[in-house]
Amino acid sequence: MQSRSGSPSAWLGDLSVVLTPPRSEEVGDEDRAALAGLRGRPVAQVRGWIARRREAEARRAALIWKAAFVVIGLLGALAGAGATSAVLRFDAQAPVNVFHVLGVLVAPQVAFFLLWVVWMLAPVRESRAWRSLAEAWNWLHPGVWMMTLVRRLGRKSVARAWDAVREHAAAWRILTATQRWAVGLGGQTFALGFALASLLTLLVRVAGQDLYFGWSTTLDVGPESVRRMTGLIAAPWAWRVPTAAPGADLIEATRYYRLEGMVRADPAVWGRWWPFLAWCLGVYAVLPRLVSWVVTRHRLAASAAKALALLPGAVEVVERLNPPHLDTRVADAEPTPGDGEGSVPAELSGGGSVSAVVAWGGLSLAPDALRQAVGAGEAAEVRTAGAGGPWREDEATARTVAALADGGTVRIAVKAWEPPLGEFEDFLRAMRKAMGRAGRIEVVLGPWPEAGLPVAATEEDIRVWSGFLARLGLDGLAWGLRPDGGAT
Q1: pLDDT by residue (tens digit) across 156-200?
Q2: Of 254, 427, 448, 460, which residue is least crowded by CB atoms under 10 Å?
Q3: Can you give the CATH number for the domain in which 470 is found?
Q4: What is each CA distance from 404 to 296, 363, 412, 428, 430, in whole angstroms?
Q5: pTM to 2 decimals?
Q6: What are the CA-CA distances from residue 202 to residues 73, 81, 84 (Å)?
Q7: Of 314, 343, 364, which residue is a domain's last?
Q8: Hey, is 486 helix, strand or coil?
Q9: pLDDT single digits (tens) 235-266
Q10: Domain range holding 220?
């Protein structure tokens, strides 16, 4: 079995395809055997099942997510290169102002990184005030742009699957947490691309152009104040790269006034600012963004793994890969039908009292044929269940049938030669709970030649079913063979 990638796009791709519940034919004995070694590890089982059954869909979804991350990163790089080129524009009339470089390329990166640190605190992230602020500025967030791109690229697959979950409040809450981390990673990818492109553009411009740097401000700031400020900024690397920490002589020599021009210093002096600026971009822009990108990437993977274990579609996969094992053998001491305390009556009530009929386990009969086969009147409602679909559908059927019964009798037609499994027990208990103490549930065993299933119940089949029903201990539960014997 092919191992699954741990990249964010792979996790999101798997999440996108498992939002659609598995069809009955998608989880079979071969899957259970192949994934038996992963029992107890639901996420690994789900990803293993995806690799077996929905690999092509998962790859397409992952490719859409990967393309969106790449595009948003490239947009960030273009924005960073453009902003840096604009700041480094030099026309020989005045040098590139160091304050402009720090104010446009470095300070915003530091500010946004601090905002990200605050956002990482769960109480803040989940607060109503923060959510309101985030919603107000959604249109400015690169991660939101990325999600829009994902919806456009995957409108027939990813977007449709995610939108379908909105109807289920619990599932949508689980998915929303992962979506927030995906949006966050999109924003960090944009910011990292911006920072890397800014540093690379600075180095390329320095290497290919004779740039002059200086400082100037309208504020009453003297060289000594600038020296203290740059000394504080350069503290992380000054001990290792002293040339990247501007000294008092450089600061004094490169102060300029636009009206005076650049005539007070040796031309070579004006270029000595670039190591300081490059280190500023590396330490205060690239490094924090790299850290935030790695952490957000890890948190997205953790959130996707959690969602993959909790979303209804994934839960159904795990439940069907690990069906409950019921011991259908009946001990010699087991009371036989109708004998002693705790047994289940082997007697069907009169057909006129039957309000609803359920065809269980893929039994396919026309409604009129099914009513006649189980001895129900024409007024009895007919439903199907246990055909391998999602449990929530069977549970809804149980509630519907209980409401239709309205204190009457429900007959469930089963294939006698197939031993009862956990799904049938769950169905009976759900129906008994929905019906309350009123009403009667009768299980009808028999051949069903009308559906091409003429196999009659053997004595062993009867022992298995009667013992199973007796162990359930449900009130108002009975069983019986098909009234007309199934003769054709």
Answers
A1: 667 666 776 666 666 777 788 888 889 899 999 999 999 999 999
A2: 460
A3: 3.40.50
A4: 51, 21, 14, 15, 14
A5: 0.66
A6: 19, 9, 7
A7: 314
A8: coil
A9: 999 999 998 999 988 888 888 876 555 555 56
A10: 57-314
